[in-house]
## 1
Amino acid sequence: MFTKIPKEQRDEMIGRIQSFHYEQTGDEIGDLGAENWFDFFMKEIGPFLYNKGVMDSKDVLMDKMLLLEDDLYALKRPVNPK
């Protein structure tokens, strides 16, 4: 479902997990532990966030389509009856 995340971004996110864990608990979490949390979030939480992004995109697109429809109706010309 997800595309491969570039290593630089993955490493950044893992570092943020480690920082968050330390701030919350005062304990350090190693790379393996943070990677396990990252993998969990991607597998279990990621689909919820992805679907929310899809629905938000759909809503924006629908709003744009309504504006486009209004613009198209504004271009119509009256037809004189004979």
Note: Residues 7-75 form one domain.
## 2
Amino acid sequence: MSIRNKPLRWQGSDEAIKAVQIAFDVEEAVLQAVRRAAFDNNLSTPDQIRQILALPLSSRPKRPRLTVSLGPEDYVQLAERYGLNPDDRLRIKERVTMDLIDFAKSLAP
């Protein structure tokens, strides 16, 4: 399908589709240094690597968010903790969000 035949909302994704994610196997000290620099510079780890390599950074704003992968067993454990049904994933997510907010507040000066 050529770009002319694609819906307008899809046409901007062509460059992103051409991008390739690269993983770097480095020692722990390098990993920690890059992560610490990213944190100190309020950047994502990939953006910090791009900055180190003098590559342009995306000017698009990014949503500030945290991510974690949860499997079915994790949902069962969290549901038990919160007294919820393991299938009520939205409510579990809301409760986890509150726990993260409480954690951040507990560390605030």
Note: Residues 89-107 form the longest helix (19 residues).
